Q: What sequence folds into this?
């Protein structure tokens, strides 16, 4: 089976104007501009097979969106080779565009003042979808995304979650085999996020579509993607199964405490006392953050609750930036 | 209604000024834009005077004085009105107006003056400079009394224009989908470029009685060129006061309706 | 392709329905500018005439300007500038449809609405005011229609191409305003070209400005007559349309290339 997406040595360098501050600098920039290279994507190589759900994970500015745009044909690579859905994206033209869907988290294609249905009808015309197929696919998508009466209301009256779902419907009416989703759950409430994740899995199972999404939410990745591509500062740090990454890297959990108690008991807790339970990452009364081994987290939490007047406690994964920093620092090897 | 809004406005203006000073390019662009539109207006006038020696009894340089006054008033509109009360229609639609109404100051005063596009004040300077130059070409230096009449007439004109904007924007409370209502003003205000007497009967009626822009440029310009009877300047001030009172009444009615609607 | 245009126009029409009131205001702008110009020339003409234009001639001229300007106007530069600056071009580029088609469809939907209003107004005014009536001349009207289509197409490409300048500069709108300011004179919005100093009118004819508006208007009012003059006018329109299409293609391919380099 040939891969549906191939990237080899993919790189993208932007040239950014450098401007000295002040009036003289502004004038100089006008007449003799100087440029600085920003290496947004550096030598990224991967292959994606049809039917995979793959997440590009990384902090803001890591190069995820730039990579996605190169795959979608919006940007052309500075060097390297990229192929998607059987085409070179930048030169693919309309035949290529019929085989992809691009959903950007912050900019939508739904016409703001009209009901979503009107945008769907427009897309039906743009993608030349036969009437029968259009109605069948619309019905299926509406059911899967649990969109009820929403279709008749103008888009500006919909909630963010409803808008995103309609955005997905609009993008999938032509049933493309390849989906590019840039931060699809950005800014949505938990219910909406989960609904969309469920939908993507269901959709892939039914139609064998390949889904590439970028995210900086760990939950997107854990719920959806069997495979994670970690990108930081333009480089591909890790490409493989998520649980393997987590097991390797995120060996710790963070216990976040809020100390309370009646009569100011909490005030008597010291950092040293906490340190007996784990590594104290921060302690500004009444909040404390401890780092413990993943396996120990539940037990340690119980002991903390018993030992101190705790008003609130939660167990969290280390922040994604931490995981990536660790991945980078420990030099994670690519999946064998 | 209390007087606290002056220090509050002061705070906003300081912030606004700091913001605006960052955009020196905007200043240059703004001045160039004004010079371009003034040049266009002068060329248009020259074209008309290619074929006639007077327009409504006014000769070329007298109308240039009027053009200078027009530019000065436009400067006030662009500097104060459009960024302030001009935003109202959009804010009613988006609901941002609520953020303004909860502040402990008089809403109308606050909305009207909270934001200044200070670079546009150069239009006022350029306009007055043009008027001054035209006066020297006419060989007429206005007397002190005339200058006083001019100042009064110009101030009244600004108040009348302000009142018109308040009325237009208040309409946004009733007709929410009209967010570009400022376009209506811009279109009609073009008529203030020429003296009222230049227009044929029907248009003159419109510009004097229906949408009283005639007062705003013709009268101040007349004061400078010595055509004005002093009583007219006082009448202009009276009209301004009346216009302001009417607009304020409409504003209050509009706010009442707004509070009723979204409450 | 027709189905796609039908869908695009329908969409634009429905959006316009939501903005009825706003459109009325823009329409008002399109009417007051010629009305004020007419007022001034009316006063200047008095009982005589100016360069061959008597009051009735001016009235006919400016009503024709109202209608034909509304039929040929293009404003894509403004929202193309916005698309490019605010990232709204991305999803359009990911579709198998050239973004220009959407701009054309919106143009058509808007004009269908506004031009029909102006036409009705003209008919009503003509019923009461003989000065603005035109002689019944289907042949001339057909030729005018051709000239209007050519002018509308050319103005679209001018507008779209200047809008594409937003790929390179943040001051694209300033350039458009400059063009609009110049065309106030050279395209005949403020006065018939015959009233301009001959050198200026010559520039207007040598460049594309006369083809934008003045020529179709003169054709409709009968100021242009004789097969020779008509053919030359139409030919000029065709030539300038061609030139602007070429300019558009260059700007688009270069602009997209730049967009692909730096993104949006």
A:
């Amino acid at each position: 089976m040939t891969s549906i997406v191939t990237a080899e040595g993919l790189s993208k360098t932007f040239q950014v104007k450098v401007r000295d501050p002040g009036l003289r600098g502004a004038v100089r920039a006008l007449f003799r501009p100087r440029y600085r290279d920003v290496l947004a994507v550096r030598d990224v190589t991967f292959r994606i097979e049809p039917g995979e759900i793959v997440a590009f994970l990384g902090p803001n500015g890591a190069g995820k969106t730039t990579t996605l745009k190169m795959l979608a044909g919006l940007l052309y690579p500075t060097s390297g080779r990229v192929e998607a859905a059987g085409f070179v994206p930048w030169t693919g033209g309309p035949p290529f565009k019929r085989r992809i869907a691009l959903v950007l988290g912050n900019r939508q294609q739904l016409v703001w003042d009209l009901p979503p249905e009107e945008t769907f009808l427009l897309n039906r015309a743009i993608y030349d979808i036969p009437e029968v197929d259009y109605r069948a696919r619309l019905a299926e998508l509406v059911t899967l995304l649990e969109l009820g009466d929403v279709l008749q209301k103008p888009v500006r009256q919909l909630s963010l979650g409803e808008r995103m779902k309609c955005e997905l419907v609009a993008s999938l009416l032509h049933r493309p085999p390849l989906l590019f989703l840039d931060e699809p759950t950005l800014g949505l409430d938990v219910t909406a996020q989960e609904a969309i994740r469920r939908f993507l899995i269901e959709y892939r199972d039914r139609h064998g579509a390949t889904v590439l999404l970028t995210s900086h939410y760990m939950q997107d990745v854990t719920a959806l993607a069997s495979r994670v591509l970690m990108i930081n500062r333009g480089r591909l740090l890790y490409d493989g199964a998520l649980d393997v990454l987590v097991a390797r890297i995120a060996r710790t959990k963070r216990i976040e405490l809020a100390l309370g108690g009646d009569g100011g008991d909490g005030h008597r807790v010291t950092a040293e006392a906490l340190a007996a339970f784990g590594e104290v990452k921060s302690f500004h009364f009444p909040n404390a953050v401890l780092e413990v081994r993943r396996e120990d987290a539940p037990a340690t939490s119980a002991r903390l609750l018993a030992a101190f007047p705790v008003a609130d406690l939660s167990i969290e994964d280390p922040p994604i930036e931490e995981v990536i920093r660790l991945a980078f620092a420990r030099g994670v090897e690519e999946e064998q | 209604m209390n007087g606290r809004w002056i220090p509050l406005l002061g705070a906003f203006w300081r912030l606004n000024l700091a913001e605006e000073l960052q955009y020196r390019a905007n200043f240059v662009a703004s001045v160039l834009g004004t010079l371009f539109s003034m040049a266009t207006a002068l060329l248009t006038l020259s074209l008309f005077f290619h074929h006639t020696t007077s327009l409504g009894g006014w000769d070329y340089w007298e109308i240039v004085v009027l053009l200078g006054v027009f530019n000065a008033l436009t400067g006030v509109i662009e500097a104060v009105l459009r960024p302030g009360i001009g935003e109202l229609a959009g804010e009613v639609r988006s609901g941002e107006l609520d953020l303004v109404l909860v502040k402990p100051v008089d809403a109308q005063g606050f909305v009207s003056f909270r934001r200044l596009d200070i670079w546009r004040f150069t239009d006022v300077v350029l306009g007055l400079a043009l008027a001054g130059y035209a006066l020297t070409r006419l060989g007429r230096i206005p007397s002190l009394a005339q200058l006083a009449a001019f100042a009064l007439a110009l101030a009244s004109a600004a108040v009348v224009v302000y009142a018109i904007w308040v009325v237009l924007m208040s309409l946004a409370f009733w007709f929410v989908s009209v967010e570009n209502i400022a376009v209506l003003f811009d279109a009609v205000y073009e008529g203030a470029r020429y003296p009222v007497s230049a227009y044929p009967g029907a248009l003159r009626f419109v510009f004097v009685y229906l949408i009283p822009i005639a007062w705003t440029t013709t009268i101040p310009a007349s004061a400078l060129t010595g055509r004005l009877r002093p009583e007219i300047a006082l009448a202009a001030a009276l009209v301004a006061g009346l216009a302001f009172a009417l607009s304020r009444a409409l504003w209050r009615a509009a706010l009442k309706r707004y509070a009723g609607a979204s409450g | 392709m027709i189905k796609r245009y039908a869908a695009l126009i329908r969409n634009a029409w429905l959006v316009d329905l939501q903005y009825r009131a706003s459109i009325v205001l823009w329409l008002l702008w399109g009417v007051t500018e010629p009305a004020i110009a007419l007022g001034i020339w009316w006063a200047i003409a008095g009982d005589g005439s100016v360069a061959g234009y008597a009051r009735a001639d001016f009235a006919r001229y400016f009503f024709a300007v109202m209608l034909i300007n509304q039929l040929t106007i293009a404003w894509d530069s403004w929202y193309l500038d916005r698309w490019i600056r605010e990232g709204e071009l991305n999803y359009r580029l990911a579709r198998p449809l050239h973004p220009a088609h959407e701009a054309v469809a919106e143009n058509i939907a808007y004009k269908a609405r506004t031009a029909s209003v102006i036409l009705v107004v003209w008919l009503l005014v003509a019923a009461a005011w003989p000065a603005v009536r035109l002689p019944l001349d289907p042949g001339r009207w057909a030729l005018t229609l051709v000239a209007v289509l050519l002018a509308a197409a050319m103005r679209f490409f001018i507008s779209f191409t200047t809008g594409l300048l937003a790929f390179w500069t943040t001051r694209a709108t300033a350039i458009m305003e400059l063009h609009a300011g110049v065309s106030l004179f050279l395209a005949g919005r403020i006065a018939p070209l015959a009233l301009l100093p001959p050198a200026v009118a010559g520039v207007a004819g040598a460049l594309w400005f006369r083809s934008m508006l003045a020529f179709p208007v003169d054709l409709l009012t009968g100021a242009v007559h004789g097969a020779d003059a008509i053919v030359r006018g139409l030919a000029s329109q065709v030539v300038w349309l061609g030139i602007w299409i070429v300019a558009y293609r260059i700007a688009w391919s270069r602009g997209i290339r730049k967009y692909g380099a730096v993104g949006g």
